[in-house]
Amino acid sequence: MSPAHLPRPSLALKITLKIVLMSNSLASTSCYFSVNCWQTNWIPKAVAISSSGNPTVHHHFEKKGPVPVNESEIGELVNVSRLKVDFQKGLDQLKSDYMKHLSLRSASGSIENLQVDFEGETYTLQEIAQIGRKGPQLIVVNLSSFPTVMKDVLKALNDSGMGLNPQQDGTTIFIPVPKVTKEYRESLAKNAKTLFQKFKDHSRDVQNQYIREVKKKEKEVSSDLAHSVQQQIHSMAELYVSEGEKVMIAKQNELLGKD
C-alpha cells in the first residue's frame, strides 16, 4: 500500500509508530513509541508499510499550522463572547499604556492620568496630588494633603514605563523631564517590550482560566470535543498575542524613529 492510500488517523487517536534507524553499517535498530496526534499536533512526512505489516517512519515530523477556530464549537463548553472580551481587554490595555506612558513628550498630562493603587482602590495621580511645573524640565508633585500614599505614588512612577527618575523631598516629589536622547529612546523601546510581556502574561492567564473551565466538563462531553476546544482556545490566545506583538513593534519603531 502506498503512503497516499494510508488511512488518516483521527486527531485523538493514539498510534504506534516504528522508527527504523539505519547505522553506517546498515544494521537496523527498531524502537517503538506512542504519539497522541491531537496533543502533539505533529504529522509524519512519509509512512510506508513494512513486510511485517507495521507502519514505518523514515523521515522527520512536520508541524501542522495553527488549529482553526470554530466559535460555535467553543461555545458548547465556554462563553465565547466573554472569552473574546477578556482577551480584548488585555490588548486594549496594552494600546492604552503605550499611548499614555510611552511618549517622547513626557508632559504633565501623562503624569496626571497615572494610575496609583492604594489600599485596594485605584486613583489617578491628579485625584490625590497637586501637579505643577518648575521650569520646562521639572514636574512637581505635591502630596501634602495625602502623604500616606507617597510610597504607592513612587512605585507607580517607577513602574510606569516612562523612564522617569522621581526624587522625594518630604511630601513633594520632583520629576526631571528626560531629554530625548538616543539612550532615552532605547529605554522607552525596552519598556514597550516589558509592557508587551505583561500583556502576554495576561493572555496566558485568560487562556488557562478558560481551559480549566473546559477540563471541569471533560466527563460530560466527548474527549475529542474537550481536546479540540482547548486547542482552539490556545489558538485564540496566540492570535491576540500576535496582534499585540505587531502593536509593540510599531510602537518601538515610532520611539526609535524608524519608518
UniProtKB/TrEMBL annotation:
Q: Where is the Ribosome recycling factor domain?
A: 94-256
Signal peptide (UniProt feature, chain positions): 1-27
Keyword Protein biosynthesis among UniProt keywords: yes
Tell me which InterPro entries the record gives. Answer: Ribosome_recyc_fac (IPR002661), Ribosome_recyc_fac_dom (IPR023584), RRF_sf (IPR036191)
Which keywords, in A-to-Z order, does the entry hold? Protein biosynthesis, Signal
Any idea what this protein is called?
Ribosome-recycling factor, mitochondrial
Which cellular component, as a GO term, is one annotated location?
mitochondrion
User: What species does this protein belong to?
Assistant: Daphnia lumholtzi
Which taxonomic lineage does the organism of this UniProt entry have? Eukaryota, Metazoa, Ecdysozoa, Arthropoda, Crustacea
